[in-house]
Amino acid sequence: MTTHTSAPATTHTSVPAYAAPSAKAPLERTTVRRREPGEHDVLIEIKYSGICHSDIHTARGEWGDDGHFPLVPGHEIAGVVAAVGSGVTRHRVGDRVGVGCFVDSCRECDNCKAGLQQYCTGKLGNVGTYGATGRDGEVTQGGYSTHVVVDENYILRIPGSIPLDEAAPLLCAGITLYSPLTHWQAGPGKKVAIVGLGGLGHMGVKIAHAMGAEVTVLSQSLRKEADGLRLGADHYYATSDPATFETLADSFDLIVNTVSADLDLDAYLGLLKTGGTLVQVGIPERPQPVSSFALVARRKSLAGSMIGGIPETQEMLDFCGAHGIGAEVELIRAEQINEAYERVLASDVRYRFVIDAATI
Q1: Which domains does the chain possess?
Q2: 173-183 and 201-211 helices cross at what angle (nearest 10)?
Q3: What's the pLDDT score for residue 360?
Q4: Closest Cα partner for 288 from 317, 266, 311, 321?
């Protein structure tokens, strides 16, 4: 990654957006300032923006109200390059591009140099696509808008084989599952379980299946079983049935937990083979207890994973392009955002809402 930094912008322009004016307030149409593209900046005309559960947590101040309101959420952005700065070499006008969960990082720490910008340990840190303070001192505003300006190094290429609306959720949900599946080597001969078949889980099923793993969905009920099998699962079990944990004991090499609910982690660790790993990508509100004996008795591991760096995210997009993978989406108009938030909370979406930016 090039180590240049975009110069602080001195001029701005306003573009239409949907923002939360304060914590817990309904989102409303407004305008947001975007900096004029600097030498290494790219202006993106946003076509689609996915709705992530993190957007809801942040817009409602559930992860700490830091005063960054009004706030424009959105970190699943797919669009087209509208203009580039004079020094941009990685992208051209007309390119299909995406922006994920962060738009900058320190670029100097060991993690950044290794392409693991999501784990940046530098002073600037991982600069979130919204609600964070960038190197120019401005609070970042996300993808529920018509345009965004981002440094060229933090923009991804979207393969032409993926429709842009289906590509948007890949920038968060897709990479959140691809990263642990790759790191723990899901593939032929591996038995992988995905806990939960929602916005994250359905991507896990698609990707693990494309990697060649034997895939099992562990869901609260069998309500979505037909969907799970259609998306690539080989097996589907209800975790509300106690017999599931007896039938599947010592079965899996890897379990990826996508849900944010409180689970009996010891019970899920019991489903792992010797040396297996349970990876947390969902984040419950409260700490979860784990018995040390559940780990040491069979050399099992409990781990966590968070999105991916720029190189791995590009790798994920290329993988999805090659395998014909996109998110299962429900396209909505911007005025339906608040309704969509309520439906997400009610688990009434299959499997990702995506905003048509042309309606903002």
Answers
A1: 12-172+310-359 (3.90.180.10), 174-304 (3.40.50.720)
A2: 40
A3: 97
A4: 266
